């Protein structure tokens, strides 16, 4: 894959540029929607879940907690959803010219990464504005967390993009799964609601299964530099790293095997 990236880097640059241009075409605010959308969602979630439903107990400031989980989730959600149609949406190009088709899911990942980096800077800005302390030792490790999430996201995108060529139901299933998956991650509620001392034993037993969700662990790692008590246990981090590597290698192998008939099926 790395060799293909080097060989077709100009094509990838063109596809990423095209994706970004189409996304913000005829938009009044253009690229600023990268910042406006998460800020708008943060305000909505803070109002609904923080002040009305009151899920903010134990995390303060709650808007920072929501934003620190929402931005990584948006990156994952957009990359997977767009990645699902990465091949089926480029059928005309695939039929005309041959080149490594894993470039398409990778392009979706990179284009969303371009949006993710400036959006993530909002978290740091908000922390400074609110005067909230940051754990610099944890903050330095965030590039590794981003790499882990990118690898996991690419593995999922490779898998669903190739399956969607053969089974178009995948696109509809993914839309449903992603909606449910968000609420299985610590974005609008703190981790201690599952692991705190006042929590029932039934909920604590469920917490062990909860952290088998790799995105719950990854988002908790984004929270850790700002909310140290909201980080996952090291055993769940190791599990997530191993699962990510296995998923990526398995998805890439399956993609290469099923890719042979994409031109005919699509």
UniProtKB/TrEMBL annotation:
GO MF annotation, one: ABC-type transporter activity
Species of origin: Melghirimyces algeriensis
A single cellular component GO annotation: ATP-binding cassette (ABC) transporter complex
Keyword field: Cell inner membrane, Cell membrane, Membrane, Transmembrane, Transmembrane helix, Transport
Location of this chain's protein in the cell: Cell inner membrane; Cell membrane
Residues annotated as transmembrane: 28-53, 103-129, 141-166, 172-194, 236-255
Protein name according to UniProt: Transport permease protein
Signal sequence, renumbered to the chain: none
Coiled coil spans: none
